[in-house]
Amino acid sequence: MSGIRIKAAMSGDSAVIKCLMTHPMETGFRKDAKTGQLIPAHFINHVMATVADKTVLDAQWGGGISSNPFLEFRVKGAKTGDKVVVSWEDNQGEKDSADATIA
Question: In the chain, how many domains are there?
Fold first, then answer.
């Protein structure tokens, strides 16, 4: 099961796409309360979104994004029924993706 939840709906002439991504987003600067050791950096560093097989978002992220990040964006020219795919890759090589249909 994917750790990305997507809602996509038309609003006027644009599709509004909302994504909630499950990820710890550790910066590498926080210490473990029990051991005092630094928690290794673990964050999403690349996010990509396509609508109807066309790339509409290609973003580079860093450790300053909050855990379980929420992303919302609009896409002009999308249509009801178009397939939206959102994917990410983190600095440890983990990947996730999910898809939804624009309502």
Answer: 1
